[in-house]
Design a protein that fits this description.
By secondary structure, the chain is an alpha+beta fold. Helices cover about 45% and strands about 20% of the residues. Strands 15, 16, 17, 18, 19, 20, 21 and 22 form an 8-stranded mixed beta sheet that branches. A 6-stranded mixed beta sheet has the order 6-7-8-3-9-10, sandwiched between helices. The chain has a 4-stranded antiparallel beta sheet with strand order 2-1-4-5, with helices on one face. Strand 1 and strand 2 form a beta hairpin. The structure holds adenosine-5'-diphosphate and magnesium ion (MG).
Length: about 725
C-alpha cells in the first residue's frame, strides 16, 4: 500500500548539506505495526514526515496505493494528510485554546464533516482511548498520558489508513507508556502504524516489524514485504477546506485565551475611530445647525443681482498661478487684480426675473426691487423760505465712476421693495407712511433706524444734523424735515435747483423684533413712485438698472428661485460675459463658515487618521506575535491537512474580529462621549444636541476599522500560512 523507492532527503543549511535520508527503499503492508529504531539524528522523523506527506523527498518516489506522488500538487498532499494519515507527536501538540473535543474534531472539521456527525465520531474515539469524561477540558487540564490519548484520538478521528507516531511515549513514564502502546497496538489491528521509538525493548514486545535506521539508511528490517504484489485499492482523496465558521470559532477561542491583550488592541484601534467619529459628529452637527440657521434666520436675505459680483473663486485662486518667480526675461507682463465680475443686466434678463416674480411663482416672493442709477442730488435749504440757499448733501450719479460695491455695501438712498416684505418686517414707529403727490412733484420718504434706534453718523450728517455736539435726535425733529431733490447734472452753487422735487421725511421705521430681513441700511427709503416719476419725467437722467433684489418667502422659495436663475445661464458657455451671477448673501456668509468647518474637520480627521495608522501597525505586530506563538498550532493544522489558505484564514478571521470589535467599541465610546460634549456645547453656546453621528458614518467607520485591521494583518497571516509545517512542528 505504501512504498518508498530510492527516497533521499537532504537539508542544506548554509554551506553544509545534511543527508537525512539516503536512498531508502521500504514497502509497508495495509496493516502492520512497524517500529523504526535508530540513534538520534539518523532520519527517523524525516522518514515519518515524508511518508505522512508533511515533508517532501528530494529524489526517489513515494508510491501510495500504486500511484506515484512525483507530480503531487500542494493541495493533493493536504488532502492526503487529511484523509489518509493520522499523526501522533511526541509532545502531543494539542491546540491549547480548543477543548479536547474540538481538538479531536479538527481534522474532520477541515474535511467538512457535518458538526453532529463530527461530534459523535469524536466522542466515539475519545471513548476508545478512555477519555469520555474529559471532552470539555482544555489540554492544559490533562495529564501527560491523557494528552497523548487525546492526540491518538485526534489521529484516529478521521479514520486514516496510516497512523504515524513519532516517539509517542517519549515524554511519558513507563507505566503510561505501556498503556499508550497497548492502545496503539489495538489500532494497528486494522491500520498501518509506523512508530518511531528509542525503546527497543518495547518495540520488540509490541510491534510486528522492526526497521533499523542508521545515517539515513535502512540497515535492518525484521519482516520485509516479500509478496510479489500487495492488493492495491483505488486511491481516493477528499478535498479539505476550512469553513469560515471553523475559522471564526477557532479565532474566537483564541481571542478568549488572550482576552486582555485583544481588548487592549481593540481599544487602541478604537481610539482613531473615536477621534474620527467625534469630529464627524461635530462637523456634521454644526453643518446641520448652520443649515437650519440659514433656513430659519437668513431666508429673508435677498437674492441680489448686482452690477459687480465679487468672484470668490478668483480671490481664492489669486496668486497661486503657476508662474516662475524671478524670471530672467527682459520684458514685463500685465496682470489684473480684479476680483469682481460684471453683470450686464439686459432687458432680457429683467423680463426673465419679472416673469418669475409676477407669473411663475408670485406666491413665493415677498418683495422685489429694481434699482436704477440716476443723476440725483439731495439738497437742503439753509436760508429762509423766501430767500432759500440750497447746499448739496448727497450726490448720486447715473454713471458712477467706479462702482466698488462690496457685498454688504450700503447706500444712502434706498428704494423700498415692493410687496409685503416691508410691512412684514418693519414697524412704523413714528410719523406716517409716505404719501406722494406725483402731480406736484412732492414725495415722502422714510428714515430707517436699527433695533437700538440708532442711525449712522454719516447719515445724520448728510441730513444736516450736528453729530459732534448732539447725541440724541428727537424723532419729531427728524420727521417733517424737508429737502430738495434735484434730478439732473448738478454743479455746486451754479445749477438752479428751484425746479427740484420736494422730499420730506414722513416717518421712521424700525426692524421688527425677530425679523432678520435686512432690507435697508440706515438711510432714506423711497418708494417706486419716485423712481417711476423720474423715469418718466427725466429719462435722460436715469442710467441702467444696477441691481435687482428679490426677497423669497422662505428657504425653499429661495432654492427654487436660485434654480430658476441658474436656468438662465445654461444657454451660455461657461465664460460667456452674458452670464449673470446672483449673490445669495446668506449663502455667502454660511458657505464661508462651512468652508472653515470643513477645512478644520479635514485637518482633525487627518490627525485622528494617524492614530488609525498606529493602531493598524499594532495589529500587524500583534498578529505577528500571535503567529510566532502559534507556530506549533500552525504545524498541527497543516499535519491535519489544513491548506495554506486555511491557516491565513484563521489569522485573517481573527483580525477581522478585532477590527470589527475596535470599530464597535469606538462607536460605542463615541456615542457615550457625545452626551457630555453636547452638554458642554449647550452650556457654552446654548444650542442643544449639536454633535450627532449619522448611521452612514457609523457603518462606514466600523467598516473602515474592520478593513484596516484585516489589511494590517494580511502580511503576518501570509507569513503564518507559509510556515513550513516540518519546521513548525520541530519548534519547541
Ligand atoms: P531523528 O528523528 O532520527 O532524530 P531527524 O529526521 O529529525 O532525525 O533528522 C535527520 C537529520 O536531518 C539530522 O541530522 C537533523 O539535524 C537534520 N535535519 C532535520 N531537519 C532539518 C532541517 N529542517 N534543517 C536542517 N537539518 C535538519
Ligand atoms: Mg526525531
Amino acid at each position: 500500500m505504501l512504498k518508498l523507492i530510492d527516497v533521499s532527503k537532504n537539508y542544506t543549511v548554509g554551506e553544509f548539506t545534511q543527508v537525512a535520508l539516503n536512498k531508502v527503499n521500504l514497502e509497508f503492508r495495509q496493516n502492520e505495526f512497524v517500529t523504526i529504531l535508530g540513534p538520534s539524528g539518523c532520519g527517523k522523523t524525516t522518514l515519518l514526515n515524508i511518508v505522512g506527506g508533511l515533508d517532501h523527498y528530494d529524489s526517489g518516489d513515494l508510491i501510495i496505493n500504486g500511484k506515484s506522488t512525483k507530480d503531487f500538487e500542494e493541495e493533493e498532499w493536504d488532502m492526503y494528510r487529511n484523509n489518509s494519515i493520522g499523526f501522533i507527536f511526541q509532545s502531543h501538540n494539542l491546540i491549547p485554546h480548543l477543548s479536547v473535543l474540538q481538538n479531536v474534531e479538527m481534522g474532520m472539521t477541515l474535511s467538512g464533516v457535518a458538526s453532529s456527525e463530527r461530534k459523535q465520531r469524536a466522542i466515539e474515539v475519545l471513548k476508545e482511548v478512555g477519555l469520555a469524561d474529559h471532552i470539555y477540558k482544555r489540554p492544559n487540564q490533562l495529564s501527560g498520558g491523557q494528552s497523548q490519548r487525546v492526540a491518538i484520538a485526534r489521529a484516529l478521528a478521521n479514520n486514516p489508513d496510516v497512523v504515524l507516531a513519532d516517539e509517542p511515549t517519549g515524554s511519558l513514564d513507563s507505566v503510561t507508556s505501556v498503556q499508550i502502546l497497548e492502545l496503539i497496538k489495538k489500532i494497528a489491528k486494522d491500520k498501518l502504524v509506523i512508530m518511531v521509538t528509542h525503546n527497543s525493548e518495547l518495540a520488540m514486545k509490541y510491534s510486528s516489524r522492526i526497521i533499523n535506521l542508521k545515517d539515513g539508511q535502512v540497515v535492518g528490517d525484521s519482516n520485509p514485504v516479500m509478496e510479489a504484489k500487495s492488493n492495491s485499492s483505488t486511491f481516493l482523496l477528499k478535498k479539505t477546506s476550512m469553513s469560515y465558521k471553523t475559522a471564526i470559532i477557532s479565532s474566537i477561542n483564541n481571542i478568549k485565551t488572550k482576552i486582555g491583550r485583544t481588548l487592549l488592541t481593540a481599544f487602541a484601534g478604537s481610539i482613531g475611530i473615536i477621534g474620527i467619529a467625534l469630529i464627524l459628529s461635530l462637523s456634521n452637527g454644526l453643518d446641520q445647525e448652520i443649515s437650519s440657521f440659514e433656513q430659519e434666520m437668513l431666508a429673508g436675505y435677498p437674492v441680489s443681482i448686482p452690477q459687480n459680483v465679487v468672484d470668490l473663486e478668483k480671490i481664492r485662486s489669486f496668486g497661486i498661478e503657476e508662474l516662475t518667480p524671478y524670471p530672467s526675461t527682459d520684458y514685463a507682463t500685465a496682470f489684473e487684480m480684479n476680483f469682481t465680475k460684471q453683470n450686464i443686466i439686459t432687458k432680457d434678463y429683467i423680463d426673465y426675473v419679472d416673469d418669475y416674480v409676477t407669473n411663475i411663482a408670485p406666491d413665493s416672493i415677498s418683495g422685489v426691487k429694481y434699482v436704477h442709477n440716476m443723476n440725483l442730488t439731495l439738497l437742503k435749504n439753509v436760508g429762509t423760505d423766501s430767500f432759500p440757499t440750497y447746499i448739496p448733501l448727497q450726490k448720486d450719479l447715473k454713471d458712477p465712476v467706479e462702482d466698488n460695491t462690496s457685498i454688504f455695501s450700503s447706500s444712502f438712498f434706498t428704494l423700498l421693495p415692493e410687496g409685503n416684505v416691508l410691512q412684514d418686517n418693519y414697524d412704523l414707529i413714528y410719523g406716517t407712511m409716505p404719501v406722494n403727490d406725483v402731480s406736484s412733484g412732492t414725495f415722502q420718504a422714510l428714515l430707517v433706524v436699527d433695533e437700538y434706534n440708532r442711525i449712522y453718523k454719516p447719515t445724520l450728517q448728510i441730513l444736516g444734523f450736528d453729530t459732534d455736539t448732539l447725541t440724541e435726535f428727537a424723532f419729531s425733529d427728524i420727521v417733517g424735515e424737508k429737502f430738495k431733490l434735484f434730478v439732473g447734472e448738478y454743479t455746486d452753487y451754479v445749477t438752479d435747483v428751484s425746479s427740484g422735487l420736494d422730499l420730506e421725511i414722513s416717518g421712521i421705521i424700525r426692524i421688527k423684533d425677530g425679523s432678520n430681513v435686512n432690507l435697508l441700511y440706515n438711510g432714506l427709503g423711497y418708494t417706486s413712485d419716485l423712481t417711476d416719476y423720474i423715469l418718466e419725467a427725466y429719462p435722460d437722467q436715469v442710467g441702467d438698472i444696477n441691481g435687482i433684489y428679490v426677497y423669497p418667502n422662505d428657504f425653499e422659495s429661495k432654492d427654487a428661485l436660485k434654480l430658476y436663475l441658474d436656468e438662465y445661464n445654461t444657454k451660455f458657455e461657461a465664460d460667456d460675459p452674458a452670464r449673470i451671477d446672483y449673490v445669495d448673501q446668506a449663502a455667502v456668509f454660511t458657505s464661508m463658515i462651512r468652508g472653515v468647518i470643513d477645512t478644520v474637520s479635514i485637518v482633525l480627521i487627518a490627525f485622528a487618521g494617524i492614530s488609525l495608522v498606529v493602531s493598524s501597525i499594532m495589529i500587524a505586530i500583534i498578529t505577528y506575535i500571535s503567529v510566532l506563538e502559534r507556530i506549533k498550532e500552525i504545524g498541527v493544522l497543516r499535519a491535519l491537512g489544513a491548506r495554506k489558505k486555511d491557516i491565513s484564514r484563521v489569522f485573517n478571521t481573527e483580525n477581522l474580529l478585532i477590527g470589527f470589535g475596535a470599530g464597535v467599541v469606538g462607536i460605542g465610546i463615541s456615542l457615550l462621549l457625545i452626551i457630555p460634549i453636547n452638554l458642554i456645547i449647550e452650556n457654552l453656546a446654548d444650542v442643544s444636541n449639536v454633535a450627532k453621528l449619522s448611521v452612514l458614518h457609523i457603518v462606514a467607520l466600523v467598516l473602515i476599522s474592520t478593513v484596516l485591521a484585516f489589511v494590517a494583518g494580511l502580511i503576518p497571516a501570509r507569513m503564518a500560512s507559509k510556515k513550513d509545517p516540518v519546521i513548525a512542528l520541530r519548534t519547541e
